[in-house]
From TrEMBL:
It holds the Pfam family Glyco_trans_1_4. This is Glycosyl transferase. CDD domains: GT4_PimA-like. SUPFAM superfamilies: UDP-Glycosyltransferase/glycogen phosphorylase (SSF53756). The keyword Transferase applies.
Length: 361
């Protein structure tokens, strides 16, 4: 099977796209053409891919990127058995003549937008896509009228935890924004500074948040590394005293499971999270829940974990075991590939290769 995969808004090294889905397709013996903003993100494509470079769609200036994407998708899908797109934007750039097309729905974009007009337009675009395309969902959603397969954002869970714990370092992985707790994280770093505990922030930031992070870094409160490819970010997180997920109580987060919670569990990092329903359910006692918008409680939870090594070791071991049993991506990869093969009308070519060949993410 030949599959054309496309994104213009996400980083080419996006964990879900590159290190889970594309890797699963390659390991199943399929050919992949990848349309993505390689030059913009300074990424060299993997040699086993047929890569097509496009500009990245950023902010309000997206017309050029979408025009380029339309041409690139037409080229990439010309001899493909299936087209798989990952952006809402690309629904506006699909070639007229194309193979069976799949939209991978990562998130509820309308819930993140203010006002009435834009969310309404997004809902109309989603409804149109549901009528004309195959859909894959990253999580269960009630906003679609039909049933669609769910391919969750699971991760690669190592067999063992080898890195020694560091009692003076905490981490937060993922995009940094106002509703994603950026200001709370900075305050946690300030509160923990007298105790010699340092915060590593690993991820890109929304434009209006960046000055706050730069000021905090200049004053020595924390280290902000910016965007780091997921597989490297997870290695950086290993051994941390705690992993923080301080998302706010907003509609876009209510029904979502923060991927970082699973990733912390997978690496044996004790989790401190706000009480989003899916996070509480996933942790199942293998972590610490703190109130929304309460950095003092989060800082105290860190200190409590530092003061109790036995509890910390138990949480780490139990969380890792839970992640290995329930959230190991190779356990889901075969079902994902099978869905695409069915939609493309292609039989399975070969059995999946050893999971050990997969690039950790």
């Amino acid at each position: 099977m030949k599959v054309c995969v496309g994104t213009v808004t996400r980083h080419p090294e996006d964990a879900r796209i590159m290190h889970r889905q594309i890797r699963a397709l390659l390991d199943a013996g399929h050919e992949v053409t990848y349309v993505a903003p390689f030059t913009h993100c300074n990424v060299t494509p993997a040699p086993e891919l047929r890569a097509i470079d496009v500009p990245r769609a950023v902010g309000l200036h997206r017309a050029r990127a979408l025009r380029a994407a339309r041409t690139a998708l037409r080229r990439g899908a010309k001899d493909a058995d299936l087209l798989l797109v990952h952006d809402l934007d690309l629904l506006l750039a699909l070639p007229r003549r194309r193979p069976p097309t799949v939209w991978d729905v990562h998130e509820d974009m309308a819930a993140r937008l203010d006002g009435r007009t834009l969310p309404r337009l997004v809902r109309r675009l989603e409804a149109r896509a549901e009528r004309r395309l195959h859909l894959i969902l990253a999580e269960e959603s009630s906003r679609f009228g039909l049933d669609h397969p769910v391919v969750p954002n699971h991760t690669y869970v190592p067999d063992t935890l080898a890195k020694r714990p560091d009692e003076n370092r905490i981490v937060a992985i993922g995009r940094l924004g106002e509703t994603r707790g950026a200001a709370d994280l900075i305050e946690v770093a300030r509160l923990l500074r007298p105790y010699g505990i340092r915060l590593d922030l690993i991820g890109p930031a929304d434009p209006h948040i960046r000055p706050l992070l730069r000021d905090a870094q200049r004053s020595g409160l924390l280290d902000w590394f910016g965007y780091v490819p997921n597989r490297h970010a997870l290695r950086m997180a290993e051994g941390a005293l705690a992993g923080l997920s301080l998302l706010h109580d907003v509609p876009a987060h209510q029904d979502s499971l923060p991927t970082k919670v699973i990733e912390y569990l997978a690496r044996g990092v004790p989790v401190i999270s706000t009480p989003l329903p899916r996070a509480v359910e996933t942790l199942n006692g293998n972590g610490v829940i703190v109130p929304f918008g309460d950095p003092e409680a989060a800082a105290q939870a860190v200190l409590d974990l530092k003061a109790d090594p036995a509890r910390r070791a138990t949480i780490s071991a139990q969380g890792h075991a839970e992640a290995r049993a329930r959230y190991h991506w190779p356990d889901r990869a075969g079902a994902f590939v099978a869905h695409l093969e069915t939609w493309a009308g292609a039989p399975s070519l070969v059995a999946s290769r050893s999971h050990r060949r997969a690039v950790p993410a």
